[in-house]
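Quick one: structure for this chain?
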Amino acid sequence: MPARSLALVGMPGSGKTLCATHLEQQGYYQFRFGSIVENEVIRRGLVVNPANERVIREEFRAHDGMDAIAKRALPHLQTALESHDHLVIDGLYSWSEYKLLRGALGTEMILVAIACERARRYQRLAARPIRPLTIEQAEQRDWAEIENLEKGGPIAIADFTLINNDSPEALLALLDNLMRQLDFRP
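Got it. Here's what it folds into:
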């Protein structure tokens, strides 16, 4: 079976990282796009917080284009393909990133959108232990990701959409079922 990549897309707090962590625990190789930004924040000696992450994300894209994060992730993903048949990408952001990876990665790219009611996402973002957001910060991040980061494109053309308005266990059951349907194995 040829190599395949499964990219999880969705708005903040939708459940992408929950899904990626679950798949990683099952033996899948997973790469979190957000780690590119976090590592740069740390490298610069800044505090890892939503404001600094946003500055770095937008700076990368202003200097290197809307596919800047994917350009930085591509070598990691290509190396991973040397020892893994399937990749899980947590948090593909932009339309440009999708187009770059779809052409350069050399794998079938499956987009899985994780969708959730906005109020529920904001509750989750406020309650998360790492990088919590106020409702105002969550709304600002939504707007910035939609308006500045081309985030809507990959969500709109997702091959599959999982609705996450219930428990984490319910979402993971939907994900496991999808992975069986796709015959996507670690």
